Amino acid sequence: MPRIAYVNGRYVAHAEASVHIEDRGYQFADGVYEVCEVARGYIVDMKRHLDRLDRSLRELSIAWPMNRAAMEIVIVEVIRRNRVKNGLVYLQVTRGVASRDFLFPADTRPSVVITAKKVDPAALAKRAENGIKVITVPENRWDRVDIKSVGLLPNVLAKQKANEAGAHEAWFVDADGTVKEGGSSNAWIVTGDGALVTRPAEHGILRGITRTTLLDVAAKLGLRVEERGFTVAEAKAAREAFISSATTLAMPVVAIDGDPVANGHPGSVALSLRQAFFDIAEKRPA
Ligand code: PMP
């Protein structure tokens, strides 16, 4: 079955979908994106993802390419046309096409691309059973990583380095030694006395939607949460560590820079958060 993409008002064959060479997303990374999980035929946390899209667009003074209700309809239609029951929706909005100039163009319509793809839930479940390894890298990104911009070169380089080291994710570490977040995920630990710790999202990290919903899940499960920074040493000595994102959900971390976390096996808190996530997240039939 051919994949279908939505590009600036049209549903087109994915293999032939294209944007103009002077799209500002292509030339300046002048755009933002969202990735939503599709699980068991539902779009997960669409409201929170579109709220964050709205914030990212406002921070960059980019207009919505269509109104929000229309965007929701297109998202559902892209999922339907690609027959995705389990997978992802990717949505990107850029400032649009204009002759190359640093200044914002006048009267340019934002560009929008929406794609969907299937992901095998069994493969993800298997990865969660085994856990993943992470490496640490010095933070080298700009200080507006709270905006979900398509400018992801440091993340690309960090994740490539992780891959070459046999790991799945790279954690950016601040100059003060605290863990910020992963290249495409938020970072968490569970302390020896059972507290769930993750960095506050006010500044310096992306406020992950999965992170926000996991905080709801933690409250429902009666877990104690501490929103504070933690060091790499604290993470290595923790009872558990895990990452979160719409693509991985709560995913246990079993090694950091080659050192095992606890006994080197996925922790029970991460796995129970993962289990309870779907029931507590907002779901909309796709
Ligand atoms: N931090 C970064 C840098 C990310 O790219 C992502 C994934 N897009 C996340 C955190 C997790 O966000 P979410 O839970 O919304 O997928």
UniProtKB/TrEMBL annotation:
Reactions mediated catalytically: L-isoleucine + 2-oxoglutarate = (S)-3-methyl-2-oxopentanoate + L-glutamate; L-leucine + 2-oxoglutarate = 4-methyl-2-oxopentanoate + L-glutamate; L-valine + 2-oxoglutarate = 3-methyl-2-oxobutanoate + L-glutamate
Pfam families: Aminotran_4
Molecular function via GO: L-isoleucine-2-oxoglutarate transaminase activity; L-leucine-2-oxoglutarate transaminase activity; L-valine-2-oxoglutarate transaminase activity
Necessary cofactors: pyridoxal 5'-phosphate
Top EC class, one word: transferase
Protein name: Probable branched-chain-amino-acid aminotransferase
This protein's pathway: Amino-acid biosynthesis; L-leucine biosynthesis; L-leucine from 3-methyl-2-oxobutanoate: step 4/4; Amino-acid biosynthesis; L-valine biosynthesis; L-valine from pyruvate: step 4/4; Amino-acid biosynthesis; L-isoleucine biosynthesis; L-isoleucine from 2-oxobutanoate: step 4/4
Family to which this protein belongs: Belongs to the class-IV pyridoxal-phosphate-dependent aminotransferase family.
Function: Acts on leucine, isoleucine and valine.
Biological process per Gene Ontology, one example term: amino acid biosynthetic process
Keywords: Amino-acid biosynthesis, Aminotransferase, Branched-chain amino acid biosynthesis, Pyridoxal phosphate, Transferase
Provenance organism: Mesorhizobium alhagi CCNWXJ12-2
NCBIfam families for the chain: PRK06680.1 (NF005209)
A single cellular component GO annotation: cytosol
InterPro entries found in the cross-reference section: Aminotrans_IV, Aminotransferase-like, BCAT-like_C, BCAT-like_N, Class-IV_PLP-Dep_Aminotrnsfr
Higher taxonomy: Bacteria, Pseudomonadati, Pseudomonadota, Alphaproteobacteria, Hyphomicrobiales
